[in-house]
Amino acid sequence: MLSNGYILILIWIGVLGALTVMAPEWIYRTEFVNGEKVRRVTPLFAVVAVLPLVIWAGFRGNVGDTGAYMEAFADMPASLSGINGYMAGQEKDRGFYFVSAVIKCIVGNRDTIYFIIVAMIQCFLLFKLYRKYSTSFVVSFFLFIASTDYISWIFNGMRQFLAVTITVACFPWILEKKYVRAIIGIVIASLFHQSALLVLPFVFIVQGKAWNKKTLLFIIVVIAAVMFADRFTNILDTMLAETQYKNVVTDWESWQDDGTNILRVMVYSIPAILSLFGIKYIREADDSVINICSNMSIAAAGLYVVSMFTSGIFIGRLPIYFSLYSYILLPWEINRMFTKRSAQLIYIVMVVAYLGFYLYSLRSMGTF
Question: pTM for this structure?
């Protein structure tokens, strides 16, 4: 049976969308972003918009890995004096466990409050990005929900998603080419989940215009990885031999992981594909935010394609570091690549298609 929450969050986004149309003078304000005068939703509206999701994260029930996180939280010390001994027993992702232990020392053995605090941090870092850089905050919010990313990450893989959102917080430094700050931020994120180190080379790869030589080279590497999947997995196994993911290849083969669902790959590739067809509009705008988001989206699509032929459980968890930027890119593409009348039709098609994908994904997860 489909939980009311999964439908109510969609209704809530519908209400937000209606408010932006009926009372724009209350919702929007003018500010400067990346040197341009733009219209953005107010910080108060963004907080109110995301608050139900944050609260729901604390009362989500036993979704995905929630049970494992509850057990881990129960094993954490209840006083600051016990943290040193506890941390001595942690071999990986020590940043996450340290922060979690500190939270427990503050809130006690109340895992609901713990989940809310973690979700609050994640949502603050992510939706701060959308409020500042998205031409349509509500559309970006809708895409994050309808893609089921909130279930997969806020409700499930929250340790990795905390690392993801820390790398997202580094976006302004990536945009301004303040590489030292960005690298330090990403290294800090890797303390929460080591996979965040994957973002380091992309700090440089995504720079420049959309679909530049660096991104085209990345696509060639993706094609090679797909064509020679067996050799790719052997190389990956060797590269991960001395890390916490040393058994990744063995695990996905023993679990008969047949890769990411092709429908999910197609859905997450739409913004990158549109950026190729609409490259003229992106080049004319020459917006550094959109250029980088386009290249991030290409990276996400490429990794998803590789995961389709290798592992959905492991490789399929990596594109999240890049796919979140697609929710900035897609509304921009619709607004700039189409006439006003056509854009309205495209938005209707987008909403219907994503809702279909949302219900399909929930059914696949066994939610209803």
Answer: 0.93
